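lol so apparently i was supposed to do this last week
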Amino acid sequence: MGYTAHTGVREMRELPESETYEEGLLFWPYKYSLETVLNRISALAPIGGTLLDIMCGPGYLLGLISKRRMDLRLTGVDIDERYVGHGKAVYPEEIDFQLGDVLDWKASEQFDVVVCTGALHHVPYDQQEAAIANIASLVKQGGVVVLSDCYVDDYTNETERKLAAAKLGYEYLINTITNGAPDRVIAWTIGILENDVMMEEFKPSLPKRLALLERHFASVTTTQPWPDSDSGYGDYIHICRR
Ligand SMILES: C[S@@+](CC[C@H](N)C(=O)[O-])C[C@H]1O[C@@H](n2cnc3c(N)ncnc32)[C@H](O)[C@@H]1O
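anyway here it is w/ S-adenosylmethionine bound
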């Protein structure tokens, strides 16, 4: 990863291997968000219902759900073959893992619950509404979408966006180090700051994301697991109903 000398163009950084990614989940502030999402899903999903985790990564959350709610039929979809392969290997019976793109993946039937955690910021800004529209189409009428994501402070121009991304990245890093993360997780967390500032990841502000969600759902209820303070930036969870 870095800048090629002759063009100054930044090379793409891949997400880490499944094991490193899942290790990060133990130390990032994002862990508070995942805990809350797990509790909300456990309470909201109908007995014997169907649940889709779209942009599921290596399947960490699905694994927790499969232990907590053994009655649910679980599907996980991700665009990264390594993560889908990892999920299939670790949960061969409990979870149906499929390769797919959040922008156009379709299923033969709609789901009672659709989950998308910490992931929509990987979709470029100008495609996030299309992703949200596809997610909304995958849930049954009367079903629920549980969406979590990380936001920066609101901004009105590119300089403000970069500053907001740097501030979030700094706070995230401080928290990760305080939580006792090993160096490989700290190094990866520094990389997230760089990705956000240089627009390889696309974290919007809460008001910008809410404007999109409210166009595709009848109701959106929002909570903020991190940080404790009433800040603009941080991890948020939305419970969305069609
Ligand atoms: C930060 S991870 C989040 C994974 C998981 N949801 C979690 O909470 O740990 C983002 C995931 O989105 C996936 N992803 C990125 N773009 C995608 C796309 N267009 N369609 C489906 N998955 C995508 C990546 O492969 C990655 O697994």
